[in-house]
Design a protein that fits this description.
Elements: E1 2-4, E2 29-34, H1 38-47, E3 58-64, E4 90-92, H2 95-100, E5 107-110, H3 116-131, E6 135-138, H4 141-157, E7 162-163, H5 174-181, E8 187-193, H6 196-206, H7 211-220, H8 229-232, H9 235-248, E9 260-261, H10 269-283, E10 287-298, E11 301-312, E12 324-331, E13 335-342, H11 346-366, E14 379-381, E15 386-394, H12 402-412, E16 417-422, E17 436-445, H13 446-458, E18 463-471
Parallel strand pairs: 2-3, 2-5, 3-4, 5-6, 6-7, 9-11, 11-14, 11-18
Antiparallel strand pairs: 1-14, 8-10, 8-12, 10-11, 12-13, 15-17, 15-18, 16-17
Helix pairs in contact: 1-11, 3-4, 4-9, 6-7, 12-13
């Protein structure tokens, strides 16, 4: 069993932090925004909106950019703001001097992101800003997932506020909910659709598209990057799940602590057809495949996984389609809650960052540092799981006894089969005229399932790599 534990227990409280900073009498809270991609533009568009009087006390002084030669359009009508003109921010490529080391900047907003190089740059800016006594808002999920407790301790030491609502699921206020409403409850399970790209692709596959067609459409619509690897292989969801786990269970979880990470890149039209057309009729209720991030507490153990799974129409996340994200929280006392909303995009994520800016502004006015700092709990991380689901495999030839050979392998590893399904002949793909088959199993230990899959892969009765797809039940 793996163990997770934060060594520094000096701060074990949540937003009731009594760490005081000097109250400010400043007329403006001055902001340095770093990054002008989708998220940065969302922040700037909102902060320069001339109709919102709540932003009287905030001013975006600088916008840090990497390329000063790139044309930027700041066309905004600022003359309707109660007869006052808001000053336009100054563009700068000298982020360290004009923003990070600038004594006039109070809040640094990190909207840098996109790849490993940008993550490294973002972390440099976050650390530098905190060490210079500046409050920080960031949307960088990778840096928060891997450095949350360290950055929190650094922020507490330097008496500044650190916020990161935009790092998980865009416009869904899930971090505030965990840090406040659910803080005093015992969380039993969190299950979420936390990657919009995967959800969009699977939605289109259920509408009849192949995986390749759905991915291409997602890229065309801007939901998937040119290189969608991190979205479709589960990496992006793992970072978000690590943050949720750390906050919900008051411990330190990093992406590498997640026991099982599987993407949707192995899901085929066969799987969708079986779940939608056969399993749904067999069970007399609709089923669908979703990419899920799951955290489940079992005694003092945590089970963490990112997996594609099929769910029934009774599942709280059923019906969450397109690029929408949704998270269900099961609390011991509070019950079951589902949060749903846009998981990415300029406006939703930008709005999340703006809310963090305004929250920090209130803390500055009160002279209060209030960071979520409860990471003291210790858990075992389960790597021996149980599940139910189905195995898709392909027989290398049409002959008597193939299913008998396969079922013997299942039986050898103690797996109970409750259904075998043959696809109709018209679904044949390729020149070999071979069709896959589905073998559904009762709940079993995953170590037994994995042993079966390993033996089946090399068996004479199988062609290629067999795929196992799990079922998720909230209750």
């Amino acid at each position: 069993m793996k163990m997770v534990k934060m060594m520094d227990k000096t701060r074990t409280h949540n937003y009731k932090n009594n760490n005081k900073m000097k109250k400010t009498s400043m007329d403006k809270i001055r902001i340095g925004l770093i990054g002008l991609g989708n998220v940065g533009r969302g922040v700037l568009t909102y902060m320069l909106n001339p109709l919102d009087s709540s932003k009287f006390g905030y001013q975006v002084e600088y916008v840090g950019i990497s390329n000063g030669n790139k044309r930027r359009d700041f066309t905004t009508d600022l003359n309707q703001f109660n007869g006052k003109n808001l000053p336009m921010p100054k563009l700068t490529t000298n982020v360290l001097e004009d923003i990070i080391n600038n004594p006039e900047i109070d809040v640094v907003v990190d909207a840098v992101g996109g790849n490993a190089e940008y993550d490294k740059t973002s972390l440099t800016y976050i650390v530098g800003a905190i060490e210079n006594g500046k409050h920080v808002v960031t949307a960088n999920k990778n840096n928060i997932a891997r450095n949350l407790s360290r950055l929190t301790a650094l922020a507490n030491k330097n008496k500044v506020n650190l916020r990161y609502e935009g790092a998980v699921c865009g416009g869904i206020p899930i971090i505030r909910a965990l840090n406040n409403y659910f803080f005093n409850d015992e969380i039993l399970k969190i299950v979420g659709i936390i990657n919009g790209t995967s959800n969009y692709i699977l939605t289109k596959m259920h509408e009849g598209k192949t995986y390749e067609e759905a991915l291409g459409e997602a890229q065309k619509e801007g939901y998937a990057e040119a290189d969608p690897t991190n979205d479709v292989n589960g990496t992006d969801a793992a970072s978000k799940l690590a943050i949720l786990a750390s906050l919900a269970f008051k411990t330190e979880i990093k992406p590498e602590n997640i026991t099982l990470i599987e993407g949707i890149d192995r899901i085929k039209s066969y799987d969708v057809f079986y779940v939608k057309e056969h399993l749904s009729k067999f069970r007399d209720q609709a089923h669908i495949i979703k990419s899920l991030g799951i955290i489940e507490k079992k005694d003092n153990k945590l089970e963490l996984k990112v997996i594609p799974a099929f769910i029934s129409e009774q599942h709280p996340l059923y019906g969450t389609n397109g690029a929408i994200n949704a998270i269900t929280i099961v609390g011991k006392f509070s019950g079951i809650y589902t949060f749903k909303g846009p998981g990415a995009g300029s406006a939703p994520t930008g709005f999340a960052l703006v809310n963090d800016i305004l929250d920090i502004g209130e803390r500055i006015k009160q002279g209060v540092v209030a960071n979520f700092s409860s990471f003291e709990n210790t858990y075992e991380l389960l790597n021996k799981m149980e599940s139910s689901g189905f195995v898709r495999s392909v027989s290398p030839e049409h002959r008597n006894g193939v299913f008998g050979e396969k079922t013997k392998i299942f039986a050898k590893h103690g797996l109970d089969i409750y259904q075998i399904y043959n696809f109709p002949g018209h679904m044949t793909e390729g020149d070999d005229a071979l069709l896959p088959d589905i073998i559904s199993i009762e709940r079993a230990k995953e170590e037994n399932i994995n042993a079966m899959l390993k033996e089946l892969k090399s068996a004479r009765c199988n062609h290629g790599e067999p795929i196992y797809l799990r079922e998720d039940l909230v209750f």
